[in-house]
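Appendix B, example 12.
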Amino acid sequence: MYENQIIKEPKWKSWIIQTTTPIFTPDQCRQIIECGHRQPPQTAQVGMNKPGGGTDTNKRVTTISWIPFQEMGHMYRDLDKFIQTANENHFGFGDVRVTECSIYRVSCRRFL
């Protein structure tokens, strides 16, 4: 027979992460910014409940670019190491990985 049981999370899960040191050095930040500027800009899109989404200037007017894995492999390795450590120490989820390129926002004129 079904019994209503309260399921509790383990006490070690904190759900909050606070870094004590920066993830990237100032030089690494400069490299990320330079890489973002080298990438071709794209007009950001929104879903608009359609496959593939589209551009809707009433909702979002932003220019973005994507930071490729192959160009900034060291950045993605550092991020992955941080994510794995944070997951092990705070969350305990299964295989958590960076699976898509990071967005570099070139300009944001309006975001509603």
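The chain has a mean pLDDT of 82. Residues 26-49+56-111 form one domain.
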